[in-house]
User: What shape does this take?
Amino acid sequence: MNKKYILSFIIGAIVTLIIVFLFKPLKEEVSTKSIEGDVKGIYGKLVELGYTQDVPEDDIDVIVQKVTEASEWAPNGSVTASDVLEGKTFYNRSRDIQTGTYTPEEFTFLGDTSVEDVLTGNRFYSDSGELLTGTLVLPSTPIVSYKGSASVSDVLAGKTFYSNSGTLLTGIYTPPVVSYLGDTSVTDVMSGKKFYSNSSTLLTGTWSFLGDAGVDEVLDGKKFYSNSGTLLTGTYTPPTPIDFSNMQYSAYDNMGGVDYFGWFEKPLSPEDYHGEEAIWTYVSDNIWKDERAGIYWSSDQTPVMLSQDPPISNTNNFTEISLGVCDYFNSVPRSLYDGLDADCGNAINWCAELELDGRSNWYLPSQKELMLAYIDGMYNQAGNTLQEAAEFTTGDGRAIHYGTYWSSSETAFLSFLAWYVRLGDGDTHNDEKTYTSFGVRCVSRD
Assistant: This one.
């Protein structure tokens, strides 16, 4: 046999052996000894025939190692059958040939637009997979702006118009038919007032109201006109005069028929008092209201005396009124004063900060208000019994002089003096504002 043919046969056998090893399924285990024996046998035959020289054992081992590595190789990819087109074959992580199953999605084009329907330059698909380009050119028209504010009820019936939109509207307004049936003349209408009367001519009145009375200046319930053509109703109610008829028959009216302090030589009886000066209403154990005067009177709210610890002065040492320093005398009404000005003294500030049985708008009464409490019969009426009335009027005894209370009235002749009133007998006088033995009683109004 020709050596050339023998060499070709041997080389082909080696290549075939390598291919068999390379593509032998991985599930079959390949013996390294078997590969080594086959390679050495083939190579030894080549040396024997004189086609090559013998090589060291180590070189043969390198060839065996290369063949072994080649036999263990397998394709390594991430493609799956669903990623490869249907019917196409491939290898992936195996020497087994695989077949793709992927079927590409088929698009259905159902549009009926033509290039004449689409603006020029814009691309689209319509009823085919072909990409088309529009040829439509819009006509050039001016932009119309509607800025009207009329509604259909503003426009005469049947008239068409546009108002703030491109919608054509139709008016529904029908003007009223005017009838001039008046018989007023210009002397019947207030001066300067415009009017129509029995004609379509606009007239101007010449009559005027010259009164200046307000409703609070006319007796309650009386009708009148004043500086206008409006009929007004008076609201003025004159004050009810004090009825002195019962007072002149009172033998004793200063203690309500009770010798509360035991100062009298003969016992007193309720019959000794005959006056009914005013009506007093019980509000709480600490508050009675003089209904005629509209004044709420607190019980004796005398501050703690100097003998107490800590001491709180019961003075009435407010700043001279003529100086205008104390804020109390700038507050109208007095109940608006907040009690925070130290120049107003202890008595005034005590009442301003008082909160008693739900009322907080208290203030220190003037001398006249204190005198009115005596005149309206506080001693005899501010209690459910004469005993209670006496106790309510004179306080709980913390004032050294029974029922004697500071007022917020300064004397006109000496600025360091203020007036006080003794509710037990109506006595009123003045004393130094620094005097500490008088009580404090507060008043409030609605």
About this structure: Residues 251-444 form one domain. The CA atoms of residues 45 and 296 lie 141 Å apart. Helices lie at 3-22, 32-49, 57-72, 345-352, 367-375, 378-381, 386-394.
